[in-house]
Amino acid sequence: MQRIRLRYTKRGRLRFTSHRDFQRAFERALRRSQVPMAYSAGFTPHPKVSYANAAPTGTGSEAEYLEIALTEARDPDVLRRLLDASMPDGLDVIDAVEARTSGLAERLTASVWEIRLDGVDPEDARTAVAAFNAAEAVEVQRKAKNGIRTFDARAAVADLQALDPPADRPGEAPCAILRLVVRQMTPAVRPDDVLSGLRAVADLAPPVPPAVTRLAQGLFDEESGTVTDPLAPDREAAPTAHPAVAGAAVATAPEGTGSA
Prior knowledge:
By secondary structure, this protein is α+β, with helices and mostly antiparallel strands. 25% of the residues lie in helices and 30% in strands.
C-alpha cells in the first residue's frame, strides 16, 4: 500500500467552504481521477483519507494537509496534477510527496497566520500588539458545547507583529496587517481568539470582519522562531530516481489530462 501526502489551498470565496464540503469535493476528485484508493473494512467502506488540522470555515489557507492510501503505486506529481484538475478553482492541490516517514499530524505543531484588518490604522494595531505581547496572560472566552469556556490566548502565541499594508494597495482607507505564529495547544487557540485578546487588552475592534489566511503550518523551531515544511522529511527520505525511471513514471498519466 502506498501513502501520498498532499498540500492544498482554500482561496477566494472557497475559504467559506466547510471541512465537510471539502471532503465531498475531494472524494469526487478521487473518483474522476480514477485514483486506486484503499478502502476501510466494515459495512460502509470509505476511502482511506486522513485529514490533519483543517482550518476553520471562513479562513483562507495556503497550507492544508491530508494523506491518502493507494492500492497501486502512482507518481505523486502526476497524481497531484490529476486531482488539481478535478477540484474547484480555489481548492488547489499544490504539492504531493510519497509518505516515507511516520507522523504527519505530529509535525503540525504551529501555524503562521495573516490577519487583514480593514478600517484599522496600522499605528493602533501596533499599540494593541505591544500590549498583547507585554501581557503575561490574556484571558478570552469562547462558546463551547458545554457552555462558555475561559482560557489564556497569550500562552500559545509564539510571535505577533503588526505590519504596514503593501505600498501598492489600492484605496485610501486604513488597513493593518497582523502576522501571527500560534503553537498547537489544548485548548487550540485560533486567530479569532487572538483578536478577542487584542480587544480585551487594547480595545482593538475592527469595523468589518477580518480576512484571515493560514500561510504555513508545520514544526515550530524554538531557536529560529520559524515554522518548517512538514513534507520536507519525506522528500529527504526519498531515493534519487534515475532519469529514465522518472520519465517512465510521468508517462503513466492518462492522455488528455492537463496540469493545473
